[in-house]
Write a structure and sequence with these properties.
Layout: H1 15-22, E1 23-28, E2 36-43, E3 48-55, E4 61-64, E5 69-71, E6 86-92, E7 97-102, E8 108-112, E9 117-121, E10 137-142, E11 148-152, E12 158-164, E13 167-172, E14 177-178, H2 190-193, E15 197-200, E16 206-209, E17 214-218, E18 224-230, E19 242-245, E20 251-254, E21 262-264, E22 271-273, E23 282-287, H3 294-302, E24 304-307, E25 310-311, E26 315-321, E27 327-334, E28 340-348, E29 352-358, E30 365-372, E31 378-386
Parallel strand pairs: 4-9, 14-18, 25-31
Antiparallel strand pairs: 1-2, 1-23, 2-3, 4-5, 6-7, 7-8, 8-9, 10-11, 11-12, 12-13, 15-16, 16-17, 17-18, 19-20, 20-21, 21-22, 24-26, 26-29, 27-28, 27-30, 30-31
Length: 388
């Protein structure tokens, strides 16, 4: 049984607690050019760096998924786990792993935070060449369905990285094209759409934050990128290179040029500087949160969580840490048609609960898990995806 390591009750210890658990940065050296330095935890509320998880100087233990064994990499090549140029990072909260890709390589790496071991996914699907800026992978994020997604600069490759039977599988979802309404704010041209990062929302759409500060919403249904607007409130020449959603549902952005972090309201695209370090060189950001996910924002405050959201062994964990929640709570699971397909009553003692629930007889698919008090008041709703 995979254990989700970050129940929401940890958030109640304050900003430092959650920042060290679920918000990460791909950081560079203090130089004008892109030079990888480390992966680190970030306090997204206070703009302060935390633990360095893996650095350019760490002795790397790399295991090839294809060759099923340890490999020795050429540190002077673009195809290695500590390559100089990297700009794509995602956090797989279900497995506590960081996934990333070198900018000039098709290789995908999975870093286990606990053991520091790295799994190499030798990816033949992505077509990346060092001399073609259009093909460089610069955006990466975890989707609401639990899969990892990556996109190159021009949107000609939109990759889905999924895990099945302990093996990572890469699929090319197709070409992302400009919506007809974009006009001069084109997603597929370097001046207005290239670089940056992306985040996911609760409907499994993606928002791409271009280096220019332009924001595009990418629909996974039709693979169209629609121009949403341009971020305001940033210093002149601020380069947007990293983006991730914080616990409040806002987007935190970072720059590779050595600057402060900013919090952006996705509805208004207004940016507000986060206090803290002012000279961070951040090439990418990653977190476990999603835009427009009302359940996540409310749960963080209420001290209630259900995890993991990607359920591959038919077990979920229910965690409560809130003195206002008393007695029995009712857990109901609804399928996409609204039919109640599972129910169970759980007992909360002294505002605390941490219980594993077996979701028997549920077939693969999306469900809504609802938690209600004894009186019937809904305390939370959360979407889960049951897989093999």
């Amino acid at each position: 049984m995979k254990k989700h390591l970050f129940p929401v009750f940890l958030l109640l210890f304050g900003a430092n607690a959650y920042a060290q658990q679920d918000f990460f940065a791909l950081a560079g050296k203090d130089t004008p050019s892109i030079i990888f330095n480390d992966f680190r935890a970030i306090d997204a509320a206070n703009g302060v760096s935390g633990e360095k998880i893996f650095t350019a100087d760490t002795a790397a233990k790399v295991f090839s998924q294809t060759r099923n064994g340890a490999v020795t990499e050429d540190k002077n090549s673009y195809n290695n786990s500590q390559a100089v140029a990297m700009a794509a990072l995602a956090f797989d909260a279900s497995n506590n792993n960081l996934l990333y890709m070198p900018m000039f390589s098709s290789n995908i790496y999975v870093l286990n935070q606990k053991t520091k071991e790295i799994t190499l996914i030798e990816n033949s699907v992505a077509r990346v060449t060092s001399c073609d800026i259009n093909s460089h992978i610069t955006r990466m994020a975890t989707g609401y369905d639990g899969n990892i997604y990556a996109m190159n600069n021009s949107g000609t490759q939109f990759l889905q990285i999924s895990k099945k039977n302990n093996q990572y599988i890469v699929n090319d979802l197709g070409i992302v094209k400009d919506d007809a309404s974009n006009g001069k704010n084109s997603f597929t041209t370097i001046e207005s759409g290239f670089g940056g990062d992306m985040i996911a929302d609760a409907d499994n759409n993606f928002y791409v934050f271009a280096t220019s500060g332009n924001v595009f919403k990418v629909s996974t249904k039709d693979l169209k990128a629609k121009f949403v607007g341009k971020i305001t409130g940033l210093p002149e020449n601020y380069s947007v290179n990293g983006s991730a959603v914080n616990v409040k549902g806002n987007v935190v952005i970072a720059s590779a040029k050595g600057a402060a972090l900013y919090e952006v309201d996705l509805k208004t695209l207004q940016a507000k500087q986060i206090p803290g370090e002012q000279n961070l060189h951040i090439y990418d950001l990653a977190s476990k949160y999603f835009a427009n996910d009302r359940a996540n924002s409310l749960n963080a405050l209420a001290g209630i969580d259900i995890y993991p959201t990607r359920v591959d062994e038919h077990f979920i964990n229910v965690a409560v840490n809130d003195k206002n929640v008393k007695g029995n709570i009712k857990l109901n699971v609804f399928d996409i048609s609204g039919k109640n397909v599972f129910k169970q009553t759980l007992s909360v003692k002294d505002g605390s609960l941490n219980e594993q629930v077996y979701l028997k007889n549920l077939i693969n698919g999306a469900y809504i898990v609802s938690i209600a008090s004894e009186s019937g008041k809904i305390l939370m709703n959360k979407k889960i995806l049951v897989t093999e």
